[in-house]
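Good morning N.,

You mentioned wanting to compare the apo and holo forms, so I went ahead and generated the holo version with NDP. This is what I fed in:
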Amino acid sequence: MLSIQNFIDGSFHHAADGEFLEDFNPATAQCIATIPRSKSVDIEPAVAACQAAQSAWSALSLDQRADWLDRIADALEQKAERIAQLESMDTGKPIALSRRVDAARSVSNFRFFASFGREQSELTFQMEDAMNYVHRSPVGTVGLITPWNLPLYLLTWKVAPALLMGNTIIAKPSEITPLTANLLAETLLELEFPKGVFNLVHGLGPEVGQAILEHPDIKAISFTGGTETGRIVARTAAPMFKKLSLELGGKNATIVLKDAELDKAVDGAVRAAFTNSGQVCLCGSRIFIEASLEEEFTRRFIEKVNALQIGDPQDENTNMGTVISPEHLMKVESYINLAIEEGGVILTGGTRAMTGYNGPEGIGAYLLPTVVGNLHYTSRCATEEIFGPMVTLHAFTSEEEALEMVNSSEYGLAGSVWTNDLERGRAFSAQIDSGIVWVNTWLHRDLRTPFGGVKNSGVGREGGRWSLDFFSEMTNVCIKKHDSN
Ligand code: NDP
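and this is what came out, ligand included:
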């Protein structure tokens, strides 16, 4: 069992009061680590470390900081297998997925921002009688708060641009999945990364997370998590005029138009629905099918879902592991019961999975991928974020009706549209109230593009230059020419 500590000012520390929390493997229900249960008192040394480190870090050139990002990427790449193993153990996700997505993407986040940073040139605006130069400076100390579904992937998505732009960091990962954030801290220590620039505090959101939000010397908060928590973040940080980036929940639509290539649409819809047990903020949990295709699509979709291999996350052939915890399993089950109360029909799944591998205790948090038909698109199961392996199917008869159904959601993070007519797909996508829409693909990411949601899915964008904008302050310097008074 690992004993994890906070990483403050370049060294590891327990919480000041010595309290700790336990971290469990959801596939085996075994305690795999203890982590500090930090409080506001533990934030003070982290803020002091940031302030002491700030000027030397921001005095480096952008190229020098980009070099650091590359060094971190190289070191993490050496540990890719360890990252994948820790992530799989902490979240119950299949090892193949955590290799392909979590480990690979954590490395590429650093590499991408290193090279993207080097490509940037100074923004200038020429006037007839003057020149404007946009000077970027760091925001200062920034708080990064991240969820449990893609722990290192989402943390590094914030850490890399924050470091690049010269900020100092206090990060708080979800207390349910602390292992890979700790590995990042260990890696920085091995690299002799400048002390105090990156600090990591573990603990509960309402305790140490809240303390980060409230601290007057933490100037920006980049938060990824649920919409309800996002409201608390906004309520606390906005009156202090902190910079805020909120990446929140979703209830994303997969829309299959009648001219879609059915095999590809079915494959895409299954992947969008059940990757990481439906616990990706971008997962398509509402599937809308043009009525003429409904029967055939539903038959093939269920066939594919039933072929998914549910089981031991460590098995290379597993397609779906557990959900994040027994508590979350019960939450998803309560929605399955609600679906039945709301008049839904369980087309497949609906129960816990007997996988043949339920860990030594036989109590892994396994749930069968669940498909529900016959629900109205305004039902609770079709509108509330469940964040698990459960999807609802709905038929539509016209594009207008599809748009009405899709846009009725209070969320607007992502969606995918399946059609052979790319122009139609593009025009249709532009009418969806959503930050991201894919046509004939899902989770196809170019890190230069804006990432974020509308409505209750968040405020602001990250990715590419939007991350650089968030993690810097801009001063426009307007210089009037001598000879034109
Ligand atoms: P939560 O909102 O519960 O938690 C997110 C983070 O916030 C955790 O580190 C949590 O700590 C912390 N937190 C909780 N309360 C507070 C508080 N009062 N002050 C400061 N921090 C706090 O989300 P989950 O971890 O359950 O993640 C799932 C959610 O994240 C889903 O809604 C999903 O859609 C969303 N998400 C959004 C993404 C996007 O890019 N839009 C990407 C991935 C996920 P603790 O764990 O200790 O409670």
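The chain has a mean pLDDT of 97.

Happy to go through it together on a call whenever suits you.

Best,
F.
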